[in-house]
Amino acid sequence: MNGKKCDGSPKPKMKPTSEVVKEEEEDAEILESEKMVSEEPFDLDELLPVIGEFGRYQKLLLWLICLPACIPCGFCAFNQLFMTDVPEQYWCRVPELENFTADERKMYAIPMIENDGVESYSKCSRYAVDWKEILNYSDVDDGFAPNSSWPTEPCLDGWEYNKTVVQSSIVIDFNLVCDYDIYPTLGLVALNTGGPVGVYLFGLLNDRTGRRISYFSCLATLLLGSFITAASTSFWMWAFSRVIVGLTIPAVYQIPFIIALELVGPNYRSFVTVMTCTFYTFGIMMLAGVTYLIRDWVELTLYTSVPFLLYFLYLLVMPESPRWLLMKGKLEEALQILETMARVNGKQLPDSFRKRLQQRVLAEKSRTTKRTETSIGAFDLCKTPNMRLKTILITLNWFANETVYLGLSYYGPSLGENQYLSFFLSSLVEIPSYIICWIIMDRWGRRWPMCLLMILSGISCIVTVVLSEDAVTETLILYLLSKSMISASFLIIYPFAGELYPTQVRGVGIGTSSYIGGLGLIVIPFITYLGKDNLRLPLVIMGCVSVLGGFTGLRLPETLHHRLPQTLEEGELFGQDWTFDECFRCIPIKKSPVGSYENLSHDPSDTALELNAAVPINASTYATGSGSCSTERTPLEIARIRRQSMKRLVRQASTMDTQKTKDGAMQLTYWF
């Protein structure tokens, strides 16, 4: 043999066995990576850096559609506070004395009572006498005076009201005073009872029919409830209408929020969240001005709802979420929206994305068997001791934040000398708290800012008990400080809870904690009702709840600069080494040597994690075992395969997401 084949051509040079084995292993890794890529749902977050994470398209959508769409929630969640204004002076109506002046009717028919050493006319009783007989046999013009020994009775014919300040309210129209004074509180309970039900129902609609249909159905339900409110002729009809309105709160706020989150890149979701909260607060501030100008409760209902009929014009411009379309396999519609997004942003949709997406849709349609996945529910959060403790503490803190925030919002008009100004200021103080919170939580962590703000907010409420009764301004200032701090704390609890729950159960965990925490909204109207007899008692109760939540939150582990858990097993280990000393560490220690998930994916040359070793195809070509064949990979494909080596890594910078399905589509959460 002379090193040639039979036909005279030279034999190919044989590679050493070790090189052949190495190439085969690399090929196997490549094929395994490609198999994993083809089996998992496409993540739109990988495409957004190519066509624009926060370009002109997203900015127009955010500023002109999504943020304004949040305003109806603030209007309709709090306009009810001003429908139930109670006049300072009211007394029993006596039909037989209607020919006399109001002062004379009170003097003749209403007994005097002593309250805190001050005598005043009774609001809930009248003399039980036969006025026809008395008027026939008495000369009223000669100085008639009632006899204080006469028997009394309840107001059987309703009440008269001094309408100098409060000109119109359901209290006046439906006589909700004395034995019926708790009815306005029941109206708030009715409003808040509809919330969890609405989030569930519109959440189903959101996932099955899309964001557009869900939002406009929610808006139509809100307007229907508002119109029934304006047409109400009895308290129970009015209360029923508030349940209908409550079904849309906070769903009517969360659906445009989800649309915005799904269309921007992960790096901008914190900004979108803060801006959404800010616009929601601007809506409440605008409501303070509307209520000051409109004093009739029926007109107020219409002025705070009818203008939102114009929002149905958004049907012409509001896009469907491409994430939802991809999840439902509606390829052409999703591509059309993504092409528009890329064009407006001055980018180009990669052809590789079209091809891969078409392959995936075809694969999904032809697949006859689906992978079986273990269903994970809320009870799985409580099977192990550390996860059980963290779940309880997260839920307790969510309950405390949501209850105190909304309780203070409800109580604002009761404080100060002008209810409209107090309500406006209570909304205004939220704006700087959001901005400050946004800055500090990525520097000082989540746990200490949240807990410290809750504790200080509670203390500000509790110390009002030592103030004198006439310290109106001082009480208002402490209240505003408390409202500002609890607003910032409430903003932190959402991303903090999302980081504490493992990725595997994040949606279930956030959904469970937010629903249980939302039950406090049904209780809080009864707490604010206690202020009828003692103005500071509700503040003390809410302050104690806030302080308790703040101290218990210190037991939670910090998440900033940590690699966060992905599975339930990792979640059980995360924070298991917690020590009491961590309660006194304000600024967390950097334990993770890497930056954020997004920073890694935006820096293809980063070798800090030796991604090239994990997936040896970050170059433009690779060699197959069959010869010199080379295949060029696009940046999108590299990003997808690179992701396989980062399964155990997570974002370190705060990213505020809502809960998601396994396909990446975002879901509603009971949070506002």
TrEMBL record:
The chain crosses the membrane at residues 60-82, 182-203, 215-238, 244-264, 271-294, 300-318, 420-441, 448-467, 479-497, 509-531, 537-556. It is found in: Membrane. Residues 1-30 are annotated as: Disordered. The keyword Cell inner membrane does not apply. Signal peptide: none annotated. GO terms for molecular function: transmembrane transporter activity. Residues 1-10 have a biased composition (Basic and acidic residues). This is AGAP008335-PA-like protein. It comes from Anopheles sinensis (Mosquito).
